[in-house]
Amino acid sequence: xxxxxxxxxxxxxxxxxxxxxxxxxxxxxxxxxxxxxxxxxxxxxxxxxxxxxxxxxxxxxxxxxxxxxxxxxxxxxxxxxxxxxxxxxxxxxxxxxxxxxxxxxxxxxxxxxxxxxxxxxxxxxxxxxxxxxxxxxxxxxxxxxxxxxxxxxxxxxxxxxxxxxxxxxxxxxxxxxxxxxxxxxxxxxxxxxxxxxxxxxxxxxxxxxxxxxxxxxxxxxxxxxxxxx
Length: 229
Fold this sequence. Notes:
This protein is mainly α.
């Protein structure tokens, strides 16, 4: 079969088009959740709250909770987490859309990695900047929001770009819960036509174009924010 027969006959190209929509929706919304939750987790990791300091000096419960979450999420496969979200957490809620199950699963998975990226960025900032901000009358959270975090986000752009690219590619496992993403679209074409190379190559090319465009865009943003340029 030629390419026209494989993709255009029976309007099979729609499998890839619809799959692309699903893949992009999951990636975009999961990225937003990952950024917000990751920032919260990173700040929790930095928390010095120690209510039992008199008897247990190094026990910081908020920081410990964040550390446990990050360790568990980073130490288990994304596929296992997706299946837990689908069959366990939302197993008794059939009205819950598979799309939002996937978004939440990938979003909270990404949050653990984003948290470590932001935490590393915070620790890379000279401590003197926090002290200077506090000496000017800013509270800890004001100093963090106005002085530290803007620098952290700029420094973290390369790592954040890698996390987005990873999230985009990892979304290809949503077929395990019956979603028709790009990979499932390629499978549908393969089943109907008995061909594998053409449909899989097309999907690989789409992923490559998406990741390349995003990396290029983030690279331009990074250079525009570089104070040395």
